[in-house]
Amino acid sequence: MKKMTTTKKKEVKKNSFVQRTGKEKIEKAKAGKEAATTETRSKRGFNVVRGMRDVLPKEERYWKALYHNAEKLAEHFQFGRIDTPIVEDANLFVRSIGKGTDVVDKEMYVFEDRDGSKVCLRPEATASVTRAYINGGMWNMQQPVKFWYWGPMFRHDRPQAGRYREFNQVGFETFGSDEPALDAEIILVAYNFYKDLGLSTQIHINSIGTPEERQRYKTELVNYYRTKRSYLCEDCRLRISKNPLRLLDCKAEQCQPVKEDAPQIIDWLGEESKSHFMKVLEYLDELGVPYVLQSTLVRGLDYYTHTVFEVYPDVGEEGAQSALGGGGRYDLLAEEMGGRPTPAVGFSGGVERSVAYLKDSDEKGLVKVPKLESDVFLAQLGDEARRRSLQLLNDLRESGIRISYNFSKNSLKTQLEVANSLALPYVLIIGQKEVQDGTVIIRDMESGVQETVDQKKVENILKKKLGRV
Ligand code: HAM
Predict the structure, then answer these.
(1) Spatial separation of the C-alpha atoms in residues 402 and 377, rounded to whole Å
(2) Is 324 in the pocket of ligand 1 (CB under 6 A)?
């Protein structure tokens, strides 16, 4: 190897210095860019995934009101709570809801699990509850077996008002009897779910009979629609061969006259199916549950037989666009899923849509949903007092007295302003002196009068003042 001259060595050194600084510069720039990207990202934050939403505390009272009502109804009508997994075998829904339906063909969140099996986020819960009934051998129990649930469902739908990709359903399902009284009971529960909160609804109802009756009807429907082909929208032309029952769902203006004159499924039902339907309607009449016969109502899931229904907000002339909930009989599903023949009937309400209807009615003053308000405000002055206040808050937990407070504020003036803005009638004040004396000041916010009471007696005194005894 040739020996390097001193000048050359110096040059190399100089160059490597230049190179190093260049490299460093690039790295520094890269790091800066990365930092800048991270910064912009963290500044911009992350958006919620399309079709999903946060439920914020300002909606809490509506969710609570609906949940409590569902719980009360379940208890009264003796539905037992069931919680099934969110992740299920994808085929469970392909088998039950059916190929060719929008939910299965277009909307399921299907993915491969780590072991290669095909699983999905449940798009609804009726199939899951049926699976649970079969898995648990519940036909051995006293029939009917009745369940209720509340939880998230997932459908990769086109997001719009009232339509999300993650949404919640409340549901009631009854297994083990084909008695029309149980169809009526489910419809009554669905109706009461809204009525008890002061919400008026319209129940649209129809019967789609047995699969054989439906098949004969479909043939008739296809024959009729074929003769009207030239009047139909693009979608309906496809539906004639693909999914004829969906012809009845079409909202396109140009298809309405054709739909109006279309054969009605009710005319294709046999005596038994007709008699079942008539009995359900008689029960509803007796119960005073209002309904509208809707000959075009067929529902979008394959498992239904006989009674089908949907619940709409009663918003007068303008008519509601989307259903609050829907349900019906699914007498053949358990058997199709490998269980024993088990007639069943159920309903699911969309929670987000129900919350929106309740909130809207509350804002219009048509119903009153109690606000989650506090009874008193607790103000503290100084470290010692804050410690004592936290203790008092904890002690008063069982008392039913709801207390607002703000431990990040120290000045009494600011805390009284907060109490004022909340329009609370009383403020409890704990300062240095009260900590030492074991007392608390109760201030009447209207009169401004203050009294000092023993901390041990504050619960009873407040209860009296609030009219809770
Ligand atoms: P469904 O009609 O598909 O029926 O859904 C019931 C309700 O869930 C709808 O009326 C609607 O309020 C709500 N819902 C459906 N999709 C969405 C969405 N993308 N965003 C927001 N809300 C939605 C069923 O799921 C059946 N399992 C009902 C049933 C129970 N049948 C017998 N038992």
Answers:
(1) 9
(2) yes
